[in-house]
Every structure is written in C-alpha cells, then in structure tokens.
Specification:
This protein is mainly β and 153 residues long. 0% of the residues lie in helices and 42% in strands. The protein is built from no helices and nine strands.
C-alpha cells in the first residue's frame, strides 16, 4: 500500500532545500502532493500521493507533514518516515521519474488529546537539488474537523 516509499528519510539542509530558482545544471521538476486527511476520536489518517510532472527526474524528495496538535508518543511510522517533533513527520518519497513518477504514503496516527479540529501543513522541504518553479501544488494547508470525513488537498 505504501507504493514507492523507501526506507530512509533525508531532511533538507543547505541552499538546495526549498530552492525555487534555477539550479546549476538546470535540473527542474514539478512536484505535487495530493490526498486527504481525516480526524476522528483522536485518530488521524493521512493518504498522500506525490507526483513529478517533469521535465527532470527527482532521485529523492522529502515531504513534511506538520500538525497543529501534538501526536501521542510511541507511535511507529512507515520505514520512509521519521518524527521531527511531536507535531512533525518527515517522509522520503523515493525516486520520482519525470512526467509520471508517483509515490504513495499512508499514515495512521493518534493525537495526544481529542481535538475538535486541527490543521495539517504539507510541503516539499527537499528535492535533491532539483528546482521547482511551481511550488503551489506541493504546499497545502488543510483544516480538518473531527468528523471522520476526508478533507481533500
């Protein structure tokens, strides 16, 4: 179910992290993240699809999911993810080929309390030195009510 998601996580550092302009060598891709988030009885479900619309391949990218509410401790994540804090999960997408590379991720988490609502911010934080001039489709902020309904981004 986790598709192309791989075992290690790379967190962006240095000038390549979040770069928007051209990179030496001219590598450019258009990453996007879409999916849905649900919240019910202190449980959070996230389903995320990462795509590369090209023109260049991306050997790795890291997507960060930041929650407005702290998550309960002691939760295991998929092998491609790690906890950055009690409110932030960072996950590696794996390789994304140009014009069609897809990575899929599913998370089942528990909040520390029982919030009636929360926000989730989804963003690419590292893309292996490849620039992305259209970052609007790889950054989302989603308000999620504790109804169990899927809130689509």
């Amino acid at each position: 179910m986790l598709g192309v998601v791989l075992a290690a996580v790379m967190v962006g550092v240095g000038s390549g992290a979040g770069a928007v302009g051209p990179v030496a060598g001219g590598s450019e891709a258009d990453l996007s993240h879409h999916g849905h988030v649900s919240l019910w009885d202190g449980k959070v479900g996230v389903w995320l699809v990462s795509e590369n619309h090209g023109p260049s391949d991306v050997s790795q990218a890291t997507v960060r999911l930041a929650f407005s509410e702290p998550m309960a401790g002691g939760q295991e994540l998929p092998p491609a993810c790690l906890w950055s804090s009690d409110r932030v999960v960072s996950c590696r997408t794996g390789a994304l080929r140009a014009a069609g590379g897809v990575g899929e991720l599913a998370l089942d988490l528990r909040t520390a309390a029982l919030p009636e609502e929360m926000t989730v911010e989804i963003a690419t934080v590292w893309r292996d030195g490849v620039s992305d001039r259209n970052s609007r489709n790889d950054r989302h902020r989603v308000l999620v009510l504790a109804t169990g309904d899927p809130y689509v981004f």
